[in-house]
Amino acid sequence: MARIVKKFGGTSVADIEKIQAVARRAKAEVDAGNQVALVVSAMAGVTNQLVAYVHDISRLYDAREYDSVVASGEQVTAGLTAMAIQELGVPSRSWLGWQISVHTDDAHGKARIESIDSDELIRRMEQGEVPVVAGFQGIGSNSRITTLGRGGSDTSAVALAAALKADRCDIHTDVDGVYTTDPRIVAKARKLDKITYEEMLEMASLGAKVLQTRSVELAMKHNVRLQVLSSFTDEPGTLVVNEDEIVEQELVSGIAYSRDEAKITLTRVSDKPGVAAGLFGPLADASINVDMIVQNVSADGKTTDITFTVTKSDLERAVATLEERQSEVGFGDILSDPNVVKVSVIGVGMRSHAGIAQRMFQALAEKGINIQVISTSEIKVSVLISEEYTELALRSLHTAYGLDAE
Amino acid sequence: MARIVKKFGGTSVADIEKIQAVARRAKAEVDAGNQVALVVSAMAGVTNQLVAYVHDISRLYDAREYDSVVASGEQVTAGLTAMAIQELGVPSRSWLGWQISVHTDDAHGKARIESIDSDELIRRMEQGEVPVVAGFQGIGSNSRITTLGRGGSDTSAVALAAALKADRCDIHTDVDGVYTTDPRIVAKARKLDKITYEEMLEMASLGAKVLQTRSVELAMKHNVRLQVLSSFTDEPGTLVVNEDEIVEQELVSGIAYSRDEAKITLTRVSDKPGVAAGLFGPLADASINVDMIVQNVSADGKTTDITFTVTKSDLERAVATLEERQSEVGFGDILSDPNVVKVSVIGVGMRSHAGIAQRMFQALAEKGINIQVISTSEIKVSVLISEEYTELALRSLHTAYGLDAE
Fold first, then answer.
1. This model's pTM is above 0.80
2. What is the CATH number of domain A263-336?
3. pLDDT above 80: residue A63
4. B16, A53: Cβ pair inside 8 Å?
């Protein structure tokens, strides 16, 4: 007997036939003697439609109302999936974030799960019932619905697996595993059998859409065995595991990219203590994540330029927030550019090998690609380049690091 | 200063432009110094889509999951409408059934409101905030979402108006008032300026789609001044009032029809005490409403035929429920016919005037329309006829009772 959490994304529950297929997978686990809980996303396209409604009404929308609107998509699939499972003769019940409860903080639109009340679910699973949990949502203080950010259902699944002390968390999706890079762009991309939590974390946070970043953080923290696999085949997927489970480690495991970045440059910023706090404090207060930051050396000793990136969806709010502070903080112009992409090479092997970054810079230089911003960590190197070079950069780097399939 | 509840149906919030128009109406009330709370339905078509999903998955679906699925439609409009009001500079907040809370019984799919916690809403309205309440939904025991049945948002609005002690409850809809009969079928139908609660109750329960039956019951019980009016014009609508407010009363105020009826006939039912209870008890347990009932005189003293109607959507479940009891209760065949329509003439004037029913039977006979079942009450006469005669019957009766517009 194993206890398994299985998460199905939007394309896996895109229509009634697919929902019925999900129900059959749940039944198969029950028939095999396992306890299973599902976490489902909204039907493909639904969340985008709801977000479009919100944007039609308001550009600077109220995040609490946004959450209430967009969380409805998962509510629909959770109920339909529970019915489809019942239809197969297996007891099932849907659970919304506020019903379980999935307690979160109040950062609407990107809330963090604080705790999950799992006793009732465990009791029901032990009796053979299949809980179908609406992903992506929780409940904050004041009984307001919160959502976890795009891809948040992955985090719901991992948090639930941790709370249920599940043996495994299967993330079913429309791809059959984690690839060395996006196979839609690089034909020679290869599926990985295993990848470390840390690499997966970097891949996810750097734009690989296969898993939400926080879900990997959570899995690593709670040691949840994670599998990324197809919703539509029975092939094994990619296991996300501890580093010591991987015998032969490549220098670089994968190459990720993110088109969600937008670049903001502030010119003639007063070069004095406290300026960075004055700039980034208000952005943090507005729940806007700042990613890459570069501050140039001050040429005249008085002013400097600061360049940083935010997600494209935060760009407008970030610019508006900064404009409000312009006189207070003191800077010249705000230049913004949404037409950038962040490309990253990732591998735990970097820790013990030099020259990984240099190989990247060289490969890009050979193709005439200008690097705008660089940032590095222990196991990755990221560069910001003009968006039009995305495909060229990915293919060049994939070859340069010897990742191409035979 | 007046406190007003305004309800907007699905066609009134069918797209973003219409939602913005609703928001402007709310602001206009606030600007006029009034306190206003809105109740909104799902965007037109959304609930039907959700119901279709449910039916695709299961014919004998779990009503608890059904409620959770279909309640999502109102969740979307409530959030969007609150945002649209905020966008006009007026504070607003959406409220789901479980957030207020709107406490109901556990009759999923057709739950009844038991109480509404209104203190928080009143406090906010007094501070100028506009609550936007998701109609159609409440919360039962065990934290499960309930829904009030199709058109239930009217009931939500009236119950809220009663709880808030509102001065008026405006039901905004896609027609501009209550008509003598369906103007899409009878071109000479007239809009009524006033109608009594009792007549409106009969009209609603007999198929006039303009208001849900229970909303009128509630309005009558709590003496809520009700107005049915257009969402798209500023014309006054039809006031639903006490009988003593109407000076000159017509014999017949209106003619309603319902295509939602389905006929079930049980043949060779044992003619002994307790049979009716044995038949209708299980239907009641399954929350299936039985409407018209006719029991023929027993020809042989041993068996009889019983004919009754249920709503079309309950037909399959009703037949299944009865089939389970066939041997126990004892009857021959179950014959079912969904192709029937119930036509009713309504008027408080009937109480004091004879011959109203006779005029109906005669008018139908003149057109060769066969009456299958008859039922009467103090202020209405209803007949069940073959569905194909619907339009002919309505036009004939509208003329026969002198209701045609000049």
1. no
2. 3.30.70.260
3. yes
4. yes
